[in-house]
């Protein structure tokens, strides 16, 4: 897993082996 900077309202996708296994939108930053 690679750490990346994320901000509120940012859309993201989680990919594994070239295929998307998850996606979503950041709604709250807790740290």
How would you state the average pLDDT, rounded? 91
Show unreliable segments: none
**DSSP summary: helix tally:** 0
**Helix share bin:** under 10%
Strand content: 35-45%
Lateral strand order in the biggest sheet: 1-2
For the terminal residues, how far apart are their CA atoms?
18 Å
- State the total count of DSSP E strands: 2
By secondary-structure content and strand pairing, the structural class works out as: mainly beta
Major sheet summary line: 2 strands, antiparallel
Radius of gyration: 10 Å
User: What are the secondary-structure elements, in order, as H or E?
Assistant: EE
Task: Based on Cα principal axes, name the global outline.
Answer: globular
Write down the domain tally: 1
Characterize this entry briefly:
Helices cover 0% and strands 42% of the residues. It is mainly β and 31 residues long.
Molecular structure report:
This protein is an all-beta fold and 31 residues long. It has one domain (1-31). It is 0% helix and 42% strand. It has strands at residues 11-16, 19-25. A two-stranded antiparallel sheet has the order 1-2. Strand 1 and strand 2 form a beta hairpin. The relative contact order is 0.36. The model has no long low-confidence stretch (mean pLDDT 91).
